[in-house]
From TrEMBL:
This is Potassium transporter. Signal peptide: none annotated. One of its GO terms (cellular component) is plasma membrane. Residues 23-521 form the K+ potassium transporter integral membrane domain. It is found in: Cell membrane; Membrane. InterPro entries: K+_transporter, K_trans_C, K_trans_N.
Length: 781
């Protein structure tokens, strides 16, 4: 028996290692595409103009030393060994850090947060356990952040700056990667011909790249990892060849001594050239941003044992070649391709172009992902999000953003036509994101990990000083291309903050103009009007109280629906909400009023279901609440209306599949959810012929179901069969009289422009127009 258990354990270990290595291999195509492309343009950007080469190797050795230690300290030490540990339930990125901080200190500026959200499984760290803060480490810092709203806004702006620079990187990386790959044509044609060929070819590749986004990357994603693997093996092999063929002693440049010698000799020119050197870590942030697609260990293994050594060998090989070719000035200008053996240049050029496309694809996908997160957390206007794969998590496509990125990318390529200025722009975007990550990470160490403030300060000073040095070198080239990411980020930052500010003000207006519960109770169960069959679904941002839009209906319409549901779809500060924790359901007023509140909670990375699936889950959750509810009244009596503690957590129908029986339907176009006794099992009847199905309830004659519960379920069934009407508020937000001119510009022009050009609620995008009723309301904020 002991032998069998040992064999079983070994089998499990082998399978886990196979899975781990498979993930590490797959991560090459998604995570390391951009980072692996950097050897194409690092030396070319570094030696562009700032450094005058001499007959000695001091400049070349100095640059190689900087590249080696930058790759070692930032991607390897900072990201692999430290930052990757700060995952938000497996997710990474700037907003993951911000989300962690919001949950460990009450610094979230999301308006409709509830105490019930803190009971979510993923709200706590490390699979449901929060590290115990025995020594009250960072308690003063936490109190300081929670007390001063200005600091909370600074924290939000810091996260938004990092996000905006990621979007800027989504514009610049495809341009410089494709342009640098195509620049290899310079070696096979005259300078005059090359000038007229390089830009058009780069533009054609970029247009092709962005045009493919609509189809999703899952169809060609299986080719990404082999392309990056081939590229890494190619550049490392060429690097080894150049080292042994041209200069076997180039390893001496790995000594930090050559960095100081380089700066001492080149002085200001050497400092300015750091803007080109920092391009060697372009794409390092993807290790953390794409953490949700892979595991920590798989990303660490791929970088430590393949990507890092391959890049070091590639840079050493280029330096070895350049150290023996001082006389050819073009060698410094062309960069990578001149160090490739002549017979291999065309195959390497083809692989490089494929690699540039893969690297660009990873950045574009990352841009879509972070914009989705921003939109979910109320920091970006609502955009159309298309899920291109039903199997692969995170594969999304945003048409408006895609074509905007393409136009900006083409403008950069045609406008600059120069790797140096593109490199200056890309470098500033990359290093800004890293600085933001360093700042947020130091706060996470104190507030989330409960490490000493001294350790966090040391982390901030060590990595912050290195990144600040590169940041200053990039910023000094403001007029030589570095203005591009600043301009792009400023535009996006203003748009995001205006949207966030307007959203908060609109919510505050809703809260201040809620209808009192006493008004509702005074109307009686009929609400003073005729109640007709059907369900009225009123969309609201409120998580408690009756929205003002409801009083407009009751006072102006002669009839209203038999069942009314106040629906709030909100995002919470976690990446995912489990299906069994999706809905919070409660009553508004007594049972006979048939008024319900349903709050659908989504994480910032969750996929919103289509309208039919969402409608089914919503009605099933109301039915489950009715069956399990034992209270006589809903929220609102005895002055407890503002509380949401009496709301019940109800999962989606998909999360309650235990005991579900599937059977054929006679009419073939309906889906039955049958309530059976106290266990409330749902019997789904699905038709394999049609994708879109209706939902109806069959309430059997059972003595186990209370008569009142049975009657209420029957009413819900009849209302659902009669149809569902969606009531949406079409809001016009205006600054109230007496507001400052800045607020009037922000609200009346900025927010209004963004609102008119944004999408409605995601679940309402495909609702038939005949079922939708929009009510105009003016908000004076």
């Amino acid at each position: 028996m002991d032998l069998e258990s040992v064999i079983h354990k070994n089998t499990i270990k082998e399978e886990s290692w196979k899975t781990l290595l498979t993930l590490a291999y797959q991560s090459l195509g998604v995570v390391y595409g951009d980072l692996s492309t950097s050897p194409l343009y690092v030396y070319k950007s570094t030696f562009a103009e700032d450094i005058q080469h001499s007959d000695t190797n001091e400049e070349i050795y100095g640059v190689l030393s900087f590249v080696f230690w930058t790759l070692t300290l930032i991607p390897l030490l900072k990201y692999v060994f430290i930052v990757l540990r700060a995952d938000d339930n497996g997710e990474g990125g700037t907003f993951a850090l911000y989300s962690l901080l919001c949950r460990h200190a009450r610094v979230s500026l999301l308006p409709n947060t509830q105490l019930a959200d803190e009971d979510l499984t993923e709200y706590t760290m490390d699979n449901g356990t929060v590290p115990i803060n025995k020594k009250n480490v960072g308690l003063g810092l936490k109190t300081l952040l929670e007390k001063h709203r200005v600091l909370q806004r600074v924290l939000l702006v810091l996260a938004l700056i990092g996000t905006c620079m990621v979007i800027g990187d989504g514009v610049l990386t495809p341009a410089i990667s494709v342009f640098s790959a195509v620049s290899g044509l310079e070696l096979s044609m005259s300078k005059e011909q090359h000038r007229y060929v390089e830009v058009p070819v780069a533009c054609i590749i970029l247009i092709f790249l962005f045009a493919l986004q609509h189809y999703g990357t899952h169809r060609v994603g299986c080719l990404f990892a082999p392309v990056v693997m081939t590229w890494l093996l190619c550049i490392s092999t060429i690097g080894v060849y150049n080292i042994f063929h041209w200069n076997p002693h180039v390893y001496q440049a790995l000594s930090p001594y050559y960095m100081f010698k380089f700066l001492k000799k080149t002085q200001k020119g050497g400092w300015m050239s750091l803007g080109g050197i920092l391009l060697c870590i372009t794409g390092s942030e993807a290790m953390y941003a794409d953490l949700g697609h892979f595991s920590q260990l798989s990303i660490k293994i791929a970088f430590t044992f393949l990507v890092y050594p391959s890049l070091i060998l590639a840079y050493m090989g280029q330096a070895a070649y350049l150290s023996r070719h001082h006389s050819l000035e073009s060698d410094y200008r062309i960069g990578f391709y001149v160090s490739v053996p002549v017979k291999l240049r065309w195959p390497v050029l083809a692989i490089a172009i494929l690699q540039a496309v893969v690297g660009s694809q990873a950045v574009i996908t990352g841009t879509f992902s972070i914009i989705k997160q921003c939109s979910a957390l109320g920091c970006f206007p609502k955009v159309k999000i298309i899920h291109t794969s039903s199997k692969m998590h995170g594969q999304i496509y945003i048409p408006e953003i895609n074509w905007s990125l393409m136009l900006l990318c083409l403008a950069i390529t045609v406008g600059f036509r120069d790797t140096k200025r593109m490199g200056n722009a890309a470098g500033l975007a990359v290093i800004t994101v890293m600085l933001v990550t360093t700042c947020l990470m130091s706060l996470v160490m104190v507030l989330c990990w409960h490490k000493s403030i001294l350790l966090a300060v040391c982390f901030l000073l060590f990595f912050g000083s290195i990144e600040a040095l590169y940041f200053s070198a990039s910023l000094i080239k403001f007029l030589e291309g570095a203005w591009v990411p600043i301009a792009l980020s400023l535009i996006f930052l203003i748009a995001m903050y205006v949207w966030h500010y307007g959203t908060i003000k609109k919510y505050e207006f809703d809260v201040q103009n809620k209808v009192p519960i006493n008004w509702l109770l005074s109307l009686g169960p009929s609400l003073g009007i005729v109640r007709v069959k059907g369900i009225g679904l009123i969309h609201t941002e409120l998580v408690s109280g009756i929205p003002a839009i409801f009083s407009h209906f009751v006072t102006n319409l002669p009839a209203f629906h038999q069942v009314v549901i106040f629906l709030c779809i909100k995002s919470v500060q976690v990446p995912h909400v489990k299906p069994q924790e999706r809905f919070l359901v409660g009553r508004v007023g007594p049972k006979e009023y048939r008024l319900y509140r349903c709050i659908a909670r989504y994480g910032y990375r969750d996929i919103h279901k289509d309208d039919m699936e969402f409608e089914k889950d919503l009605v099933c959750s109301i039915a489950e609440f009715i069956r399990s509810d034992t209270s006589e009244y809903g929220l609102g009596l005895g002055g407890s209306f503002e509380e949401d503690t009496k709301m019940t957590v109800v999962g989606t129908s998909a999360s309650n599949m235990e005991g579900v029986v599937r059977m054929s339907s006679e009419d073939g176009d309906q889906e039955d959810c049958q309530m059976e006794g106290p266990s409330s099992e749902l019997i789904e009847v699905k038709s394999p012929e049609k994708l879109r199905k209706r939902v109806r309830f069959v309430v059997p004659d059972s003595p186990q179901i209370d008569w009142d519960v049975r009657e209420e379920l029957l009413e819900l069934m009849e209302a659902k069969e009669a149809g569902m009407a969606f009531i949406l508020s079409h809001s016009y937000v205006r600054a109230k009289s007496g507001s400052s001119w800045i607020k009037q510009v922000v609200i009346n022009y900025g927010y209004d422009f963004l609102r008119r050009n944004s999408r409605g609620p995601s679940y309402a995008l495909s609702i038939p127009h005949a079922s939708t009723l929009e009510v105009g309301m003016i908000y004076h904020v």
